[in-house]
């Protein structure tokens, strides 16, 4: 196994949040792995999405480096007109660039 994953989906729209808030478009990720006693929750947000600035979860993460672990970056060449968007997002289980996992 190379430790890679890929999926195709339609980019989600804004999601209703608590009260009258809107959450930025995101994909929920639930991670299971050998050696983990419980599964891990995280999210994938999309780079360049204007709604990211007002998203309640992203706004609650003060450390920019940690917040950035939740944001998928547009892959090279996918911004051309008529070309499907491709994003790259890495899951890092531990270390300096560890992905932010959520307590739900």
List the keywords.
Protocatechuate 3,4-Dioxygenase, subunit A, two-stranded antiparallel sheet, mainly beta, 2 helices, four-stranded mixed sheet, globular, 10% helix, single chain, 104 residues
Topology, element by element:
Elements (H helix, E strand, L loop, with lengths): L14 E2 L5 E2 L2 E6 L8 E7 L9 H5 L3 H5 L2 E4 L12 E2 L16
Parallel strand pairs: 4-5
Antiparallel strand pairs: 1-2, 3-4, 5-6
Characterization of this structure:
- 10% of the residues lie in helices and 22% in strands.
- It is built from two helices and six strands.
- The protein is globular.
- A hairpin with a 5-residue loop joins strand 1 and strand 2.
- With 104 residues, it is mostly beta strands.
- The strands form two sheets. The protein has a four-stranded mixed β-sheet with strand order 3-4-5-6, with no helix packed on it.
- The chain has a single domain, classed as Aromatic compound dioxygenase (Protocatechuate 3,4-Dioxygenase, subunit A).
In short:
This protein has 104 residues and is mainly β. The chain has one domain: Aromatic compound dioxygenase (Protocatechuate 3,4-Dioxygenase, subunit A), CATH 2.60.130.
**What is the strand arrangement across the widest sheet?**
3-4-5-6
User: What order do the SSEs take from the amino end to the carboxyl end, as H and E?
Assistant: EEEEHHEE
The count of DSSP E runs of length 2 or more, i.e. the number of strands, is: 6
Going by helix content, strand content and strand pairing, the class is: mainly beta
CATH topology: Protocatechuate 3,4-Dioxygenase, subunit A
């Amino acid at each position: 196994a190379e430790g890679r994953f890929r999926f195709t989906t339609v980019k989600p729209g804004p999601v209703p949040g608590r009260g009258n808030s809107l959450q930025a478009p995101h994909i929920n990720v639930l991670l299971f792995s050998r050696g983990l006693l419980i599964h891990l929750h995280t999210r994938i947000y999309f780079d360049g999405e204007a709604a990211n600035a007002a998203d309640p979860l992203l706004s609650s993460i003060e450390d920019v480096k940690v917040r950035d672990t939740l944001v998928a970056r547009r892959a090279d060449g996918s911004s051309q007109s008529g070309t499907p968007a491709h994003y790259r997002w890495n899951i890092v289980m531990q270390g300096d660039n560890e992905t932010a996992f959520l307590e739900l």
